[in-house]
Design brief:
- It is a single chain.
- The protein has 5 helices and 17 strands.
- It has about 240 residues and is an alpha+beta fold.
- It has 2 domains: about 80 residues, Ubiquitin-like (UB roll) (Roll), CATH 3.10.20; about 150 residues, Molybdopterin biosynthesis MoaE subunit (Aldehyde Oxidoreductase, domain 3, Alpha-Beta Complex).
- Strands 2-1-7-4-5 form a 5-stranded mixed beta sheet.
- Strand 10 and strand 11 form a beta hairpin.
- The radius of gyration is 19 Å and the shape is globular.
- The mean pLDDT is about 90.
């Protein structure tokens, strides 16, 4: 499929052009596929494209959205109006590049990054003996999950104004033992500027309000794992 891409502001400067046409192979592709293909063709976009705002046919678009032949996709930084630190919210079906994510949420003012990742545990201690897990299967209410990730980031900023870049990534699909399941990264100027506390809050809050579920699959069968937190009106995004 042929996609027409428009670049604005800093994206235009780094790409060295304001428009670009790109062919994506196969019968289906998503906005994530387009970002990856653009970085491969225009490496100068590697540090800015992951956090760029996107639109498809003049409407805001988000990672995972499907593309169609002839679509017009635009990438641009957040609209002018104040200091902006990079933020990443992503539902990913493949392991994250931790170095790339760290680069994406740091700026020259950044001196510390606290990064938490969860992994698939193959054995869990229980009162009746060890529980063995072969794999996990993650499912998400995608549109709401991304919206709630944004809410988590907003809550972090309200409590720790020293936090700069934020990345929140949740894996979906089938994950084998040892694979990363979730990632929270918070950057700040110094290690005592809240990045540790913010990352801890971020993972705890994600488990409360981001609609993601997992099925544990083991030698003896499978079961969905349900949480114990029930949202209240205070958890609505303001």
């Amino acid at each position: 499929m042929l996609i027409r891409v428009l670049f604005f502001a800093t994206l235009k400067d780094r790409a060295g052009r304001n428009a670009h046409e790109i062919h994506l192979s196969g019968d289906s592709a998503t906005l994530d596929d387009l970002r990856a293909a653009l970085v491969a063709e225009i490496p100068a976009l590697a540090t800015s494209l992951p956090t760029a705002v996107a639109s498809i046919n003049q409407e805001f678009a988000f990672d995972g959205e499907a593309l169609h032949d002839g679509d017009e996709v635009a990438f641009f930084p957040p609209v002018s109006g104040g200091t902006h630190w990079p933020e990443i919210y992503e539902l990913a079906d493949s392991p994250p590049d931790l170095n790339a994510l760290t680069r994406a949420i740091t700026r020259p003012e950044t001196g510390a990054v606290c990064l938490f990742t969860g992994t698939v545990r193959g054995q869990t201690a229980t009162t009746s003996g060890p529980l063995h897990t072969t794999r996990l299967e993650y499912e998400a209410y995608s549109a709401m999950a991304v919206s709630k990730m944004r809410q988590v980031a907003a809550e972090i900023r309200a409590q720790w104004p020293g936090v700069q870049g934020i990345a929140i990534l949740q894996r979906i699909g089938v994950l084998q033992v040892g694979e990363p399941t979730v990632l929270i990264a918070c950057a700040s100027a110094h290690r005592d500027s809240g990045c540790f506390e913010a990352a801890r809050y971020g993972i705890d809050r994600l488990k409360e309000i981001v609609p993601v579920w997992k099925k544990e699959v083991g030698p003896d069968g499978s079961q969905w794992v349900e949480g114990h937190y029930t949202p209240t009106p205070d958890d609505q995004q303001r």
